[in-house]
Specification:
Layout: H1 2-13, H2 19-47
Helix pairs in contact: 1-2
């Protein structure tokens, strides 16, 4: 469910107005980047 959490974080950032929530999401971005890299690699592998 990490992928869904990443999407929810993205949606929250579109409407965020408090620094604490922003900082929490910002701290998770490196993990999200790694997750999307794995998803992308799997998608590319599936098309070969």
């Amino acid at each position: 469910m990490l992928l869904l959490e990443a999407v929810e974080d993205r949606n929250r950032l579109s409407h965020i107005y408090d620094a604490a929530t922003f900082d929490d999401i910002l701290a998770r971005l490196p993990g999200c980047a790694a997750l999307f890299e794995r998803v992308g690699a799997r998608l590319i592998k599936g098309t070969e």
